[in-house]
C-alpha cells in the first residue's frame, strides 16, 4: 500500500484526537516523508560503501599509472637534456683545450726564440771580449 498525503493527514488527525497535537506532531516527524521503499537500509549503505571503495581503488590505480607514466617521460627528458649538456660541455672543453694549446705553443716559440737570441748575443759578446782581451 502506497502512503499518500491524504492518508498521512487522516492518520495525523486520528493521532491528534487520541494523544494530543504536540505528541501527534512529534510522532509524525519520526515517520519518513515518503514510502519505506525510498528509505536507505543498512544493506544499501553497505553496497554503496563497497562500490565507493572500488571506485576509489580504481581512481588511485589510474592516478598511480598516470604518475608513473609522467615520471618515466620526465626521466627520459632529463636524461636526454643531460646527454645534450654533456656533449656541449665536452665540445666547449675541447675547444678551450685547443685554444690553450695554441696559446702555449705560441708562448713556447716566443720563449725559445728569445732564449736563442739571448744566447747568440751572449756568445757574440763573449767572442768579442776574448778577441779584444
What report would you give on this structure?
- This protein has 133 residues and is mainly α.
- It folds into two domains: 1-33; 41-132.
- Helix content is 86%, strand content 0%.
- The chain has three helices and no strands.
- The longest helix has 91 residues, at 42-132.
- The model has no long low-confidence stretch (mean pLDDT 90).
For the structure shown, list the relevant keywords.
3 helices; mainly alpha; about 130 residues; about 85% helix; 2 domains
Sequence-ordered SSE layout with sheet pairings:
Blueprint: H1 5-19, H2 21-29, H3 42-132
Q: What series of H and E elements makes up the topology? A: HHH
DSSP helix fraction: over 70%
Mean pLDDT: 90
Rg result:
50 Å
Structural class comes to mainly alpha
The total count of strands amounts to 0
- Shape by Cα distribution: rod-shaped
Q: How many structurally independent domains?
A: 2
Straight-line N-to-C gap: 149 Å
Amino acid at each position: 500500500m502506497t502512503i499518500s498525503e491524504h492518508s498521512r493527514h487522516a492518520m495525523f488527525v486520528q493521532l491528534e484526537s487520541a494523544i494530543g497535537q504536540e505528541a501527534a506532531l512529534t510522532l509524525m516527524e519520526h515517520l519518513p516523508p515518503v514510502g519505506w521503499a525510498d528509505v536507505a537500509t543498512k544493506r544499501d549503505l553497505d553496497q554503496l560503501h563497497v562500490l565507493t571503495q572500488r571506485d576509489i581503488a580504481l581512481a588511485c590505480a589510474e592516478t598511480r599509472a598516470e604518475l608513473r607514466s609522467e615520471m618515466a617521460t620526465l626521466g627520459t627528458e632529463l636524461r636526454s637534456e643531460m646527454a645534450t649538456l654533456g656533449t656541449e660541455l665536452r665540445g666547449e672543453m675541447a675547444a678551450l683545450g685547443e685554444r690553450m694549446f695554441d696559446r702555449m705553443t705560441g708562448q713556447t716559440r716566443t720563449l725559445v726564440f728569445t732564449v736563442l737570441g739571448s744566447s747568440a748575443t751572449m756568445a757574440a759578446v763573449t767572442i768579442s771580449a776574448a778577441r779584444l782581451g
